[in-house]
Amino acid sequence: MLDDDGLPLDEVGAWAKEKHERLRKYVNITRAVRRKFVERSGGATYIDLYCGSGRSLIRDSQEKIDGSPLVAFKCARDGKVKFSEIHIADVSEQNCLAAEARLRAAGAIPIVYIGEAEQTAREIVNRLNPDGFHFAFLDPYNLDDLPFAIIETFSRLQRIDMLIHVSAQDLQRNLGAYTGADDNRLERFAPGWRLHVDLNQSQRGIRAAILAYWASKIEKLGLSSAEHAELITGLERNQRLYWLVMVSRHKLAKEFWDKIRNVSGQGELL
User: Fold this and answer.
1) pTM for this one?
2) Between β-strands 133-138 and 229-233, what pairing exists: parallel, antiparallel or unpaired?
3) Which end of the chain is more exposed for a tag (fewer CB within 10 A), N or C?
């Protein structure tokens, strides 16, 4: 389907609006931090490895909304502290070109990468100013598209905040397949997990153990994650959809996230 601008639309669930609202709030609350780096040293960048087309259609309501790169850019622009650079990437060339066109129409000059997220993460980090402040939004559809190597790559940066979508729905629906002897998809997400997770327990216990191990690997990189997660659930059936996980090595990022996320009592990963 095409939008009024002749460019393609992504199709998303209604919960995407909640996710984008957290993104918008985080861009807004870090305005003063961005200003410091934009005005004095290093610059401030926004990174989106799964940028999509830049516009989406909510499948139930048919409402059209901006995608994450437009949400982040417009929020920073309207807050009077733009990002120094915007890096967008997607495995789909069509998506990248559409998102680029929409960002340019809004006044941005994005740097575009086409390819798998693991590859584009390396390309982006190699050209970033190591003295800057960097914010990455990682929003893959499933766990297989979130290899741990991406987090390792970004951890090379001294000042990096990552807001990560971790699909609870994918882990719940596909746990049996993922834990099969010949399936390696979880190995990409959490390398070495089979040595640390006891499969002789309930499915809930297995899921919790996998996520705990993933969080422990992040902490070994000098970052933190598990205590700064928010669980998003479906509005009608209260089904577990995904976690939004804030990953950073700076305590201020964690304080910011705790101020803007919904604290529901279901927020921990573990």
Assistant:
1) 0.94
2) unpaired
3) N
